[in-house]
């Protein structure tokens, strides 16, 4: 995003915050976990992959701040600090960490457009989101590690792998347009 003014980069970051909100609305609740299936992590990977670490993180921080003050940007059109403080809050906060890590790894790669570099950076971002979210879930629900992983990580791995593949393809196609 080097050729854009700072104002344009911030505007694009705001659009990615809106994209994350829209992707969060597309959610499927699961009966065995409070964590819904949604497309938010896809937009997080796109933010980090297309905007880089700085503006990708800004986009997710804007999303978090909007939700924290009550704007209904989280799953099921919810918002408010109570959602962030609840059992799924760590995963939502983890979006900013995931966008940062995805973008930072790509910004420091020799060939950031290679599929393997994209997949590695997004997998690292996903792992950071899982780490923060699972620790938060365990603390807020007094759950042990294995039950927390069984409820909050393992069921989501296949879908998240598909989201990473889709994000890699989209970033490779869209990066020439945005950079």
From TrEMBL:
GO MF annotations, alphabetized: biotin transmembrane transporter activity
GO CC terms of this entry: plasma membrane
InterPro entries: BioY (IPR003784)
Keywords: Cell membrane, Membrane, Transmembrane, Transmembrane helix, Transport
Segments traversing the membrane: 35-55, 62-83, 89-106, 118-139, 145-171
Membrane topology value: Multi-pass membrane protein
Subcellular location: Cell membrane
Pfam families linked: BioY
Family: Belongs to the BioY family.
Name the UniProt record assigns to this protein: Biotin transporter
Organism of derivation: Zhenpiania hominis
